[in-house]
UniProtKB/TrEMBL annotation:
The keyword ATP-binding applies. This is Cytidylate kinase. It catalyses: dCMP + ATP = dCDP + ADP; CMP + ATP = CDP + ADP. The lineage of its organism: Bacteria, Bacillati, Bacillota, Clostridia, Lachnospirales. Keywords: ATP-binding, Cytoplasm, Kinase, Nucleotide-binding, Transferase. It is found in: Cytoplasm. GO terms for cellular component: cytosol.
Length: 228
C-alpha cells in the first residue's frame, strides 16, 4: 500500500483556510476535509433545538443525538447531519457564531475528531481547522499556520457579505472576528495555536494564487506531489 499523506492547515477565522485548502487539494489530488463544516453542522443541530451557546450540560447531552458525516458528489464535499444534506444551510453568521461557541466543549470535539482521524488514516487528505496540526493530526507530513491581520480578515468577510447583498457593518465584523480569535485561542480544550513544526504563512498581502503557490512549494519540499 502506498504511503498516505496528510496536510494540516490551521489558523484563525477568515484567514482563507477553506479556500486555500480546497484549491491545494485539487492540485494534489487529495481529499479536502472541511472540519469547520462539521462543527457548523453540529451547531445547526443545536440552534434547531433552541439550545443556547452557554448551555454546556445541554450541549454535552445533545451531542449523543448528532451524527455528522461527509460524502462527495462530483468531487464536492457534502455535509450530512443525521441523514440530511445541510451543506447549503451552515454558512450563516448565526451558525458560525454557535459553532465557535460550542466547539469549546470537550464532548463536541471528541465526537468529531474521531471521524476526522478515521478519514486521515485512509486517504491522502488536506484538513483545515483550529487544532489540526496540534491535536487531530499531530503526525501530519506538512503543517501550515495560515493567518492574516484582523483588519484584512474583516474586510474580506465584509466584501463577501456585501457581494451577496447582505447588510453588514465592517466595524461589527472586525469586532466579532477579534472576539472569536480570543475565544478560540483561550478555550480550555484544544485552543488555536501554531504547532511548533508548522510553517507560518501570512496571507495579508498575498493573492490567493500566491498563497496556493507557496503551499505547493512547501509540499514539494516535503516530497508531497500529485498522488495517482
Amino acid at each position: 500500500m502506498s504511503k498516505i499523506y496528510n496536510i494540516a492547515i490551521d489558523g484563525p477565522a477568515g484567514a482563507g483556510k477553506s479556500t486555500i485548502a480546497k484549491a491545494v487539494s485539487a492540485k494534489l489530488g487529495f481529499v479536502y476535509v472541511d472540519t469547520g463544516a462539521m462543527y457548523r453542522a453540529m451547531a445547526l443541530y443545536f440552534l434547531r433545538k433552541g439550545i443556547k451557546p452557554d448551555e454546556e450540560a445541554v450541549i454535552s447531552e445533545a451531542v449523543k443525538e448528532v451524527g455528522v458525516t461527509i460524502s462527495y458528489e462530483n468531487g464536492a464535499q457534502q455535509v450530512i447531519l443525521n441523514g440530511e444534506n445541510v451543506s447549503g444551510l451552515i454558512r450563516t453568521e448565526e451558525v458560525s457564531q454557535m459553532a465557535s461557541a460550542s466547539s469549546i466543549y470537550l464532548p463536541v470535539r471528541e465526537k468529531l475528531v474521531e471521524l476526522q482521524k478515521e478519514l486521515a488514516r485512509n486517504e491522502n487528505v488536506i484538513m483545515d481547522g483550529r487544532d489540526i496540526g496540534t491535536c487531530v493530526l499531530p503526525e501530519a507530513d506538512l503543517k501550515i499556520y495560515l493567518t492574516a491581520s484582523t483588519a484584512v480578515r474583516a474586510k474580506r468577510r465584509y466584501d463577501e457579505l456585501t457581494e451577496k447583498g447582505e447588510p453588514c457593518s465592517l466595524e461589527e465584523i472586525e469586532k466579532e472576528i477579534a472576539e472569536r480569535d480570543y475565544r478560540d485561542m483561550h478555550r480550555e480544550n484544544s485552543p488555536l495555536k501554531q504547532a511548533e513544526d508548522a510553517v507560518l504563512v501570512d496571507t495579508s498581502g498575498l493573492t490567493i494564487d500566491e498563497v496556493i503557490g507557496e503551499i505547493l512549494k512547501l509540499a514539494s519540499e516535503k516530497g508531497i506531489g500529485w498522488q495517482n
